[in-house]
Amino acid sequence: MTGPLDDYLVDPTLSLLDKTRIQAQVLVPVLRGLRAELGRDKVDVIVKQALREWSKRLFTAIADGIEGSPRQKWAAIQSVFGEVSGREVEFQILRHDDEGLDIDVTRCRFAEFFHALDEPELGALLICAADFDIVAAGDGEVSLERAQTIMQGAPRCAFRYRFAPR
Amino acid sequence: MTDEIAISHLQRRKIEARALIPFIEACREKLGDGPTSELVSVAIRARSSEEGAKWAELLGGDVAGLRKLAETVWAAGGGMDIEVLEQTADRLAFNVTRCRYAEFFQELGLRDLGVLIHCNRDRTMVTGFSNDIELARSQTIMEGGTCCDFRFRRKE
């Protein structure tokens, strides 16, 4: 393995969807057990905080290990993450130029999996949030607005990346 | 949820741990070690009992099936080195002399978590695997032992 996300992906032969399914298969029973004892709100606050911090730390460490400008770091991570996550979605590129990249995802197998589990918030934490942590590697040179996602119940995910002038 | 993902048991546990560890550590911080361990143990054991039933269906719910489980699932992908000491229709005794699961948690400095979310599964896995078989184990490498002494036997 030689890519920037090798450690994140753990096993290069495994799809990102399967990796996420494995994590959900163990997290969901633990979450549900804790929710039954402590209440859903309390447990969901803890899991949200834990998984957000984990994801931020993870992508910060990945970005720190890549040479180049923030924009190059973002591009290096995004190219691999976009490839492995892109296998699980159907999408349309609406715009791609020096200033921006607009992508609408029209079908998402991650969202289908987590909706079937009735755990879309967990799916948003394990998958959707990563896009913003990857953008953070761009350190202001790349921004992302995403007004809606399929995981949240919308018909499309509206990715709107903007790039600072070089 | 299905489990039909072609991957070694060791890789599966590593992938699970990536997401479980930050969650359990956050729970420990908010709820304390004791309550977290108890709540996580209950949930992990419930799942391992289900896994035991699945393995029994696939491999046969007897002593021979347990040996297949140890040698072809747990030890797959270099997960562990096993020395079988005895196998009869009623008993299976083996020592795990090297455990990459323990090495994984050791590298993270989290062997206590490894005991909680990995070793802890085995006893309840056996209850799901067979009503007639029990596991006695006095030590594990994860806990600092020189080997894991698995002793399965048919209940009296």
Query: Which two chains have the most extensive interface, and how many residues on each?
Result: A-B, 31 and 26 residues
Percent in helix of chain A: 55-70%
Could you say which structural class the secondary elements and strand pairing of chain A correspond to? alpha+beta
Give the overall average pLDDT of chain B: 92
- The tally of helices of chain A reads 7
Summarize the structure in words.
The complex is a heterodimer of chains A (166) and B (156). Chain A is α+β, with helices and mostly antiparallel strands and 166 residues long. Chain A has a single domain, classed as Muramoyl-pentapeptide Carboxypeptidase, domain 2 (2-Layer Sandwich), CATH 3.30.1380. Helix content of chain A is 56%, strand content 17%. Chain A contains seven helices and four strands. In chain A, helix 3 runs parallel beside helix 7. Chain B is α+β, with helices and mostly antiparallel strands and 156 residues long. Chain B has one domain: Muramoyl-pentapeptide Carboxypeptidase, domain 2, CATH 3.30.1380. Chain B is 56% helix and 18% strand. Chain B has a four-stranded antiparallel β-sheet. In chain B, helix 1 (9-31) packs antiparallel against helix 2 (33-59) and helix 2 (33-59) runs parallel beside helix 6 (121-129). The mean pLDDT of chain B is 92. The interface between A and B is medium-sized, with 31 and 26 residues.
